[in-house]
TrEMBL record:
Residues 42-58 have a biased composition (Polar residues). Residues 37-58 are annotated as: Disordered. Transmembrane segments: none annotated. It comes from the Eukaryota. Keywords: Signal. Residues 1-29 form the signal peptide. This is Glycoside hydrolase family 5 domain-containing protein.
Length: 475
């Protein structure tokens, strides 16, 4: 059988895996906490019981303590999200495509926390209206990075309010790219403090999470921690200890602040690199992390960690709120087949659903992207253990350049719309940045035009529109 190339995290080498035999997926009824529909089975039960294969029953995410959804927000699934990290600067390798952008090298990287109010000129209704453009594409959610933990300037309430107005679920991510912020990969204190600071900046009010928040991404690809010098060759222990302690810290912050969990799910997005789970049970891209969480929640001593939260409460939060996640550039057909087989083989990874945190579609044509996203949504509608995907990403990553140019839906033109407010955080100095108009044209694909219609492909799959007669678009 021919090998299938599996992309790892963006810009990293390819791994080769053998393709699996065709797999017929099983249709499941959908848990109400994720889909906004009544659960199958007794409404008095703390756990929704779903019909499984061969007449058996399977328990899905427990329902008690979780709202089905905010009264006026869409359900979590089917997830049609867009990843958002639209930094307004350019790296030297991308300057030929954005000569009017200010240099990341000369001025330093802008703050990566896109929720701060200084970026309203990009995402706000009175600015470029990026959130409105996502809604126009047909998205129902936005996935973010570095939203908590960077100590950025100002409130996050404006972003959350705008998303709420548009009925876009928000999936904020914690700043998780620096293991040195943790104490030997014990991230309890940092995540607790970051969450409490987030509450002060608009993530919570009146004892609840902001109604736009649907999920919190505790870490993005923490499996790469094992390559950090601080890990000292301990491998999987570093990534798993970091995640379980971060979860512990978040729960402690909620308790300290008196913030109810509501409908807010918790997750980590693992890379699609080939790894082995902490308990040596699962080997494979992405799913190693699913098993990591199942194993460590049963026995935190696997990573020599003693939770500050009572273990039964930690386990209960995991059972009720956790969803598995992975990032991938690989074809949807392979990812679906591979993960589905692992779900069957490994007891549905705690009967918890999964989603794709970054659907990269690197080097894919318009037709392939349309087909993938259409199939993704159908699978999410039919299978309660799959939730959907976040398309990677809204704006071309001029700040990274190189192969990162492959992933944006929109490029930037030369017409200046205005300036951001001051944006800054603990890593980036305060500065204002010019904001330029959007274009669905991706000029670096000029020699391969079939690859350059990414926004059009997404809009077609989601019954939206890629461009509009509005000021945010270049003429």
């Amino acid at each position: 059988m021919a090998p299938v190339n599996v992309m790892m995290a963006q810009g990293r080498p390819l791994l080769s895996l053998l393709a699996f035999n065709a797999f017929a997926s099983v249709a499941w009824s959908s848990p109400s906490s994720l889909r906004g529909a009544p659960a199958v089975g007794s409404t008095d039960s703390a756990t929704a019981t779903l019909p499984g294969p061969n007449g058996t029953n399977v328990s899905a995410i427990p329902m008690d303590g979780m709202d089905g959804m905010a009264s006026d927000m869409p359900p979590f699934s089917p997830l049609r999200a867009i990843a958002y990290g639209a930094l307004p600067c350019v790296s030297p390798s991308a300057e030929q495509w954005a000569q009017d952008l200010q240099s990341c090298s000369y001025y330093g990287l802008p703050s990566e926390d896109m929720l701060q109010e200084g970026y309203a000129m990009q995402w706000g209704a009175k600015g470029r209206n990026d959130l409105g453009r996502m809604k126009g594409l047909g998205a129902n959610a936005v996935r973010l990075y570095h939203s908590l933990g960077l100590e950025s300037k100002g409130s996050h309430k404006g972003f959350l309010d705008r998303a709420h107005e548009l009925k876009l679920n928000v999936m904020p991510g914690f700043h998780s790219s620096e293991p040195s912020l943790c104490d030997d990969f014990d991230c309890f204190e940092f995540w607790k403090d970051a969450t409490l600071k987030g509450f002060e900046q608009g993530f919570a009010a009146n004892g609840k999470w902001h109604p736009a928040v649907s999920a919190l991404i505790l870490m993005n690809e923490p499996d790469f921690f094992e390559h950090d010098p601080l890990c000292k060759g301990r491998g999987a222990v570093c990534r798993v200890k970091a995640v379980v302690s971060a979860l512990d810290g978040l729960l402690a912050a909620e308790e300290l602040a008196g913030v109810e969990p509501g409908r807010v799910h918790l997750t980590v997005t693992w890379s699609f690199a080939m790894r082995t789970s902490i308990d040596d049970v699962v080997q494979g891209p992405g799913t190693f992390g699913f098993q990591d969480m199942v194993a460590v929640m049963k026995d935190p001593s696997l990573v020599d960690y003693t939770p500050r939260t009572p273990l039964p409460r930690l386990q209960s939060a995991f059972e009720k709120r956790w969803v598995h996640g992975l990032n991938t550039q690989s074809p949807w057909s392979f990812v679906s087949e591979f993960v589905s087989q692992h779900y069957q083989k490994y007891d549905n990874f705690g009967n918890l659903p999964w989603f794709i945190g970054e659907y990269g579609a690197n080097g894919q044509t318009e037709d392939t992207i349309i087909s993938d996203l259409t199939s993704l949504e159908k699978h999410a509608e039919d299978d309660a253990l799959f939730l959907g995907a976040a398309v990677f990403q809204f704006q071309t990553a001029y700040s990274k350049g190189g192969t990162e140019l492959n992933f944006g839906l929109y490029s930037l033109g030369t017409r200046k719309l205005g300036m951001t407010g001051e944006v800054c955080d603990s890593k980036s100095p305060c500065m204002e940045w010019p904001v330029f108009c959007l274009s669905a044209d991706l000029p670096w694909f000029q020699s391969k035009p079939q690859l350059g219609k990414r926004a059009t492909a997404v809009a077609t799959a989601w019954n939206g529109e890629a461009v509009a007669d509005s000021p945010e678009f270049c003429s």
